[in-house]
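This section describes the prediction task in plain terms. A model, or a person checking by hand, is given the sequence of a single protein chain and must write out its three-dimensional structure as a string of tokens. No templates, partner chains or ligands are provided. The sample shown here is typical of the held-out split.
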Amino acid sequence: MNLEFSAGTLPVDRVALLLVGSFLVTFVIVRLWVRMQRDGPSWWPRSLSSGGTHVHHLVPGIFLLLLSGFLVFALAPGSPWLELLAVAFGAGAALTLDEYALWLHLSDVYWSDEGRRSVDVIVVAFAVGGLVALGYRPLDLDTLQLGWLAGWWWVPLLVVVGNTATVVGSALKGKYYCAAIGIMIPTVALIGALRLAQPSSWWARRWYRDRPDKLARGGRRAAIWGDRRTRWWDAIGGRHGAPVDTAAGTASTATDAAAGTATGTASDTDRP
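The expected answer:
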């Protein structure tokens, strides 16, 4: 698939691949940097501040997103500027989404248990972006290879409605990864829609109230996959919810803080 620009025709997949690659590389660099700030030697550079105000790394990320996005729309550049702007946009997206949990909680929960939500969003964004770079498109009937069935007007309509229903069903059951990836690959959304709902999901609250057996089975499965996800996400983004030694004192886990046993507060200036 090609996209026309004023300076010529460029393969969209290549641009998307550069964007996703920049996104991944930036995320890896940022996570390594903040892990070194937390666990590394004392001489490792600390956070950026201006006039005593801590500057989170989502701030330059937002500026990169706005600037690169505006230039693409305003100038419709050709090669190599389009590729450079794609790299800038991917880097800005990684810097911004890496602190998604801060948007949600409006507090610095980067290394708390709630901070894993940033890794959730990063993984989903990378998966969806990677599928786009590989040529997948949302509700793209050409990739479904319907053959002669595509000639019947109701078949494509049925595919679109069915895919939308399974994506919504997956989301209502708390299967957000299946819902996001299922936009590109309908089979994934179908699997999420057919499996047991997460105990905390809308579906479980609505339909499992009189089915304690399903609620219990869903809870057991959620616990198993939750433990696995915690290990995987901590391997990707660093250990969350653990005590952190800082120059200002010792930060206890979010659980300890809730129980009233916290011995200190993590300084907001100990990471970007």
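For orientation: The chain has twelve helices and six strands.
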